[in-house]
TrEMBL record:
Cited SUPFAM superfamilies: Formate/glycerate dehydrogenase catalytic domain-like, NAD(P)-binding Rossmann-fold domains
GO-annotated molecular function: NAD binding; oxidoreductase activity, acting on the CH-OH group of donors, NAD or NADP as acceptor
Natural source organism: Ruminococcus flavefaciens 007c
Name of protein: D-lactate dehydrogenase
Keywords: NAD, Oxidoreductase
Domain of life per record: Bacteria
Length: 326
């Protein structure tokens, strides 16, 4: 069986090549993303494998289907880039719902600690033999209130990590977990009470721009915002204005609304065209990582194993527990 693998990065290939050999699957690795112009690369393949920034809209689905592709295998949890409804009866769509929720929750905490203890500044300073402490004052997490939006797999692990630090946790979820011992509040209350807010919900029509001009007004002054979920949960312009107005104290971003054309690529020798991203990165209280929260050895191994099992289940006409239905 042949599988067209789009948006390939060097860290993807070892685990997929190894499993492919074992299971008799030939992966055709393409660096390009899947979109309307690149679907032809899937010719002769039974399945395509995509990541977070590939485009799987109605036109792409039609073209893949016409080429005889039967399965769309997402090697990620989020599927906001796929028109699931349109794919019904055309392609079987499978995903990797959990590969290491610990990886993402731990990265969220890594960003928070780096930001509030100014580790990113201290690292650069000491490399230049500058041992001054001026401007490096942080604050204790103990006793602070963290608001967690989305209490699924990742959100719950992040909550436990925060409790380990002695923080007070409040949360908002459209579907609160019963008997979880979590204090659920309305979103506005979470915005007004939280010293730190961390997003762990999917991107949907309802969660699009949860942080916008209006919600920035409701935030506690000096709040630290962490987003390891999906960029478009936050209106980047509103975030920038909130930081410039000193309302938002810091932002830790592993995802960015317009990341598709920038993240995962080396632009170090180029001029970045996105002024908002460039301005955000220039702020001393903003940390940006390039959608790397998932990137641990454990997660990569789990992603490859689940994706291959998903593809094989579809190939064999079996039920797949990770199939997405609308
Ligand atoms: P999950 O499905 O276990 O939990 C999501 C939670 O969000 C659920 O409790 C759900 O009820 C809640 N939710 C749904 N709609 C909501 C709404 N309108 N308002 C508030 N809450 C809502 O998902 P999991 O595994 O915890 O992942 C969360 C998100 O993290 C994913 O959707 C994905 O976008 C992101 N992610 C980011 C990664 C990265 O590398 N940065 C890697 C993996 C996931």
């Amino acid at each position: 069986m042949k599988v067209a693998f789009f948006d390939t990065k060097s860290y993807d290939t070892p685990a997929f090549e190894k499993l492919g050999k074992e299971k008799n699957i030939t992966f055709k690795f393409y660096e390009t993303k899947l979109n309307e112009d690149t679907t032809a690369l899937a010719k002769g393949c039974e399945a395509v494998c995509v990541f977070v920034n590939d485009t799987v809209n109605a036109a792409v689905i039609d073209r893949l289907s016409a080429l005889g592709v039967k399965t769309l295998a997402l090697r990620c949890a989020g599927y906001n880039n796929v028109d699931i409804q349109y794919a019904k009866d055309k392609l079987r769509v499978v995903s990797v719902p959990a590969y290491s929720p610990y990886a993402v929750a731990e990265h969220a905490m890594a960003l928070l600690l780096t930001s509030i203890r100014r580790v990113h500044k201290a690292y650069i300073r000491t490399r230049d033999h500058n041992f001054s402490l001026n401007g490096l004052t942080g604050f204790d997490l103990h006793g602070k209130t963290v608001g967690v939006v989305g209490t699924g797999k990742i959100g719950c692990i992040f909550i436990n990590i925060c409790r380990g630090f002695g923080m007070n946790v409040i949360a908002y979820d459209k579907f609160p977990a019963k008997d979880s011992g979590i204090e659920y509040v309305e979103l506005d209350e979470l915005f007004s009470r939280s010293d730190i807010i961390s997003f762990h919900c999917p991107l949907t029509d309802e969660t699009y721009h949860m942080i916008d001009e209006n919600s920035v007004d409701k935030l506690k002054k000096g709040v630290v915002i962490i987003n390891t979920s999906r960029g478009a949960l936050i209106d980047a312009e509103a975030l920038l204005e909130g930081i410039k107005a000193r309302k938002i104290g810091a932002a830790c971003l592993d995802v960015y609304e317009e990341e598709a054309d920038v993240f995962f690529q080396d632009f170090s020798g180029h001029i970045i065209a996105d002024d908002t991203l460039a301005r955000l990165i220039s702020m001393p209280n903003v940390i940006v990582t390039s959608h790397q929260a998932f990137l641990t050895e454990e997660a990569l191994a789990n992603i490859a194993e689940t994706t291959v099992n998903n593809i094989l289940a579809c190939h064999n006409g079996e039920d797949c527990p990770n199939e997405l239905h609308i």
